[in-house]
Amino acid sequence: MNLKIGIVGLPNVGKSTLFNALTNAGALSANYPFATIEPNVGIVPVPDERLDVLAKMYDTEKIVPATVEFVDIAGLVAGASKGEGLGNKFLAHIRECQIICHVVRAFEDKDVVSYEETKAENGAPENNPASGDNPIIAQAVKKVNPKHDIDIINTELELADLETKEKIAAKRKKDASDEHVPFLTEKPVIYMFNVDEKTLVDDTKKAELRKLVEPAQAVFVNAKLEEEMAGMTKAEKMEFLESYGVKEDALGELVKAAYKTLGLQSFLTAGKKECRAWTIKKGATAPEAAGTIHTDFERGFIAAQICNYDDLVKLGSEKAVKEAGLMRTEGKTYVMREGDVVEFKFNV
Ligand code: GDP
Known about the structure:
Blueprint: E1 3-8, H1 15-23, E2 40-45, H2 49-58, E3 62-64, E4 67-72, H3 88-95, E5 99-105, H4 115-122, H5 135-142, H6 146-174, E6 189-194, H7 197-200, H8 203-213, E7 217-221, H9 223-228, H10 234-242, H11 250-262, E8 264-270, E9 274-281, H12 286-293, H13 295-299, E10 301-308, H14 309-315, H15 318-323, E11 328-330, E12 340-346
Parallel strand pairs: 1-4, 1-5, 3-9, 5-6, 6-7
Antiparallel strand pairs: 2-4, 8-9, 10-11, 10-12
The chain binds guanosine-5'-diphosphate (GDP).
């Protein structure tokens, strides 16, 4: 199972900067709406320190982490579902993702224009109070307004779904085939607030933002800091972030939130040839877990030899775990647990 996350948000909220930081893929980032014309795709390893520990223990040749795929979807603007901005092409890209990461600007920076300001410059009087003569209204609209920005994007997603529904209804008259349509608004969303350094450690402000999107999960990152960490080692990154009072980088935060929202967990396989992490649904049985490795493993499943990662680390080797009676043989109905280290027995 490959976790696929679609990144959406208004222009200039920091999507490309974050995508760069998340993938180090060198996506275009510039102070200009629509800098990200083509959706960028990046696949990165899910951070998992347990794999390094196991690799040492088993003197492993290869570490294979679980992966997460990011699709950076260019600026969604009011009217996108009708073809303004970049239109339906990129909505199709969101449809392929299991989860949406909605990036919301919550940082103040007078040098970075906001979406409303560019609308004011381009002049769109009908939906743009800032273009009026009232300086007070203009000022209010120019201020960073996360709630307003979130509403624009969510309305666009709803409109896109409505249009899809209309298309299906029209088609059904001729053709009654029951195709499965993944509606955008049915997808789980994680809100990623791009905040300044001060807000990163301001629990009151964060609680306010969190409240805007409940019950969805909120994560807080500073895209600029994340960008500055490109090229640093993991240890350097952590030290750098800690100096700002942060314990985890954006990738770690986002992946954790995505696993939680989607009800995912991982299990591990370890040996001389490779140490590997696999992603499965919580509640998956042993044969289902085996099936993520190979469908033959599920079909020919006999049993799973399982120990707990913490036991393995505490006792230092598979042999010691066996001697302590902590290696279990589990059958078809066993429900997998986070951190199970597994060897499947199967018959093909
Ligand atoms: P996108 O249009 O959503 O992809 O936005 P970009 O990632 O291209 O960012 C737009 C502008 O905002 C760029 O000039 C970035 O350097 C700047 N920017 C992004 N994140 C931050 C941040 O956290 N703080 C500040 N001050 N500027 C940021």
